[in-house]
Every structure is written in C-alpha cells, then in structure tokens.
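Sequence, structure tokens reproduced for reference:
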Amino acid sequence: MLDTIRELSDIEGISGFEDMVAAYIHERLKDAPAVESITVDRIGNCIVHLKGKQPAPHRVVMAAHMDEVGGIVTGITDDGYLRFDAVGGVMPAVVYARRVSVNGHIGVIGGKAIHQCKDKEKTTVPAIADMRIDIGADSREEAERVVRLGDAVYFVSEYTNLGDGRFKAKALDDRVGCALLLQLAKTQPEYDVTLTFTVQEEVGLRGATVVGNTLQPEYAVVIDATTAADTAGVPTDKQVCRVGGGPVVSFMDRRTLYDHELYTHIMSLAKQNGISAQTKTTIAGGNDAGAFQTAGMGAKVTAVSLPCRYIHSPACVLDATDVDATYRLLELLMNTLPAWNVTV
C-alpha cells in the first residue's frame, strides 16, 4: 500500500483541480472484481459502488477526499513575479522559501532576504500577500507565456522514508485515505457498500455535501489525516494524538458532534480485535463528516483518521504501522457496519 500512497501523494490536485487524482483512482479500480460501477458527478466526486456478498440492511458510505492544500495565482508583477493566495488552510511559515510547481514550471516562494529586513521583519514571517513566486521570468510578458491568473500552485516535495517505518510527503492529507479506500476496493465486502472520493474538502466540505445529498447514507465513515502534535516543545497534555498510536476515532471536532453509540462501538471493535486505537484529546478541526451528518435526512457519522505530523505543509509525516492498523479497522467496519443492529 505504501507504493500507492507514494504515487497518490506525487499527483497534483488542489481543491477544484482533482481531475488527475480521480483519473488515477478510475484506472486502478476499473477492473476490480467487486466494483459494480464508477461514476463522477457534476462537481467531480468519484463514486464507487462495491457489490457485496449480500444486500446491505443499511446504506453505508466510506469517504476520503482527493484534494490537497496549495495556492492559486492571483496576479503577475511587471518584473515577472507571481502573486498568489492560499487554497485551504496554509500557514505562511510553511510556504516561505519552498519550491512550487505552476503548470509544470518550478518556482520558489520568496521575499526579502534577512539582510534587507529591519526590526520586526527579521523575526516575523511575511504574510502570503507579501510573498512572490519566482519562476525565473524577467517580465510580465515572459511569465504570461506559461502562467495565467487562476492557475494552481503546488508544493514540490518528494516522498521520503524517515527512520523505521515513517515517511514524509506532500498531500498525505488525504491521499492516504484514498489509498486505504483503494485497498478496500480490491476485496469483496460482506455487504454492498459505496466508496466516495470527494472534492473540495479543504475549502468547505463541498464535495461531501453533494455526495451526502445524492446518496443519503444512513452511516458515513470518513477517512482522513488529522493533526498529531507529538512534536518537540509541545507538553504531553497538548499533544492531541500521537504518531504510532494507531487510528484516531473522534468524538467531537469543530464541525461535528459524532454519534456516541457509533464512537463507542468502534473503539470496542478495535479493542476486541487487538487494534491499537486512540482519540483526539482536544476539540479542533473538522472533516467531511460535518457535511455527511447534516445532508439529506442526516446520517450517523464517524471519522477514522491517521495521526499526521506537520499537516497542511509540504512535509506531512505518517507512520506505516498506523496505516496498517487503520486498514484493519476499516476492513472490519466495511464488513460489519451495514448490518450493525442499531436503529437509524
């Protein structure tokens, strides 16, 4: 599965530009035995119906989002630099001096050198509005030959192994979720189930809103990456969740108050099957569950996430043991949740 994660993380696909990710998914699934149909809706969501060994008593959707954070070109200066803004939640500190790609052309995000800075400028990260992308052009005309307003800006960051079982790459939020769904699609589930690869999660859960209203699931399982703060200088009680601690099952975030029975059931399921699982110890963030919960007639939702260091940056870090443990838990859910004996 790590090869799939590597390939997916290398694909360029910020919010609204997910076409190449969707094409990869379609190519990988078009001949999968359990795949009954693959469709793409008007907004770009990829919807995959898996034929189970028997009909499902309850409609279950398992979802991961295809888009990544990045930037978008908003202007070109007379001397050939590109102005840009963020797409998704991106901190200025993680983009300054980074390599980026615009239409296949490599650039560098820059600003004043420290020798030109005065007073607070030396200790303050410039706002994104004050940064520029240098693609090596010397004039507006030269830059306009390869770049237009509204073009996507991507981080350039190679997949790299770190130590024993850990790795870094861009876009692991949420290409790792896409990889897990692809792996699940290689098997025949016990019951009919729908896998959805959604668009525009990073800019407001827009794809999941459309899917939720279209499919109106009774249960929705959202697979995503979530913030792991087990890094240097962070007190133990502020570390939220830990890399290597297994899948993260949330009870609440800024968008969703998760179904308590379902949360308890999943944590018990993990324990019964020897899967290390953890929860987030703070109320923060959000994911596609927030859209699924309130779409149509509403759904019981859960989020099963992977703890990720340096999320929303060009250097997201995951642990392979968390990937394996999360897959085991998701496989159990796929094969049991459609017949879970709770009234919906």
Summary: The radius of gyration is 21 Å. The first strand starts at residue 35 and ends at 40.
